[in-house]
Task: structure prediction
Amino acid sequence: MQASSRTITSSQSGPHQDLVRRVERARDGDWQRPPAAHTRGAFEAAAEWLEYQSRPLILDAGCGVGLSTRRLAEHHPDHAVIGVDRSEQRLARDHGTLPDNALLVRADLVDFWRLALAAEWCPAWHYLLYPNPYPKSTQLKKRWQGHPVFPAIVALGGRLELRSNWEIYVREFALAVKTLCGREGEVSPFVPETTSATPFEQTFLTPFEQKYFESGQTLWRYRVDLTATAIT
Ligand SMILES: C[S@@+](CC[C@H](N)C(=O)[O-])C[C@H]1O[C@@H](n2cnc3c(N)ncnc32)[C@H](O)[C@@H]1O
Result:
């Protein structure tokens, strides 16, 4: 069956004109909202699990049903993979047994990221796979690059990979990183890897990736190494 996901339409033809100002405001601001109790509890349980794992961390932020968390854990048995999503409904979907080195956590990322930074977590890899695009120009502050939590995402460091079917989101995120810490990553379209089985099949990391690809949309990727980043 042919997937038919609509392409994103927006009045923006490039990065939002207010992006740099918003990123600088987030950098200079002192955002103090205390983390919600439920996310603090979820973070503490995840921290205990991670300590027990005693392996480098891969963070799968906004993991949805957690398929990417499972796949990343299978591909990286020497890493501990934590998938975080706020949707109980999505996390509850049955996609088989979780590998021992994977954990799904229900939490609000805005608080989870800040707690992770305060606890000096240093993910080896940090994935943001198909975040909600919020394509209306007025929705910039809802996109991660326009959100006050953005400096915490960057300060966590590691190798970050963002994927989206909206090129502008990816280019905007890259510009926001450059504004914050001067790092230049690589933005490119990509095609998911194929398996070696015959007939060849695409290996999708997430359901959204599959849906967009099978609808004929271009998938975009941004990769940047944020190791030892200084936010200036
Ligand atoms: C478009 S879906 C993509 C899900 C998955 N990565 C995929 O590609 O299939 C975006 C996900 O981000 C989650 N999300 C959005 N804002 C969040 C927040 N503040 N905290 C935790 N999860 C959030 C949503 O619940 C949703 O599952």
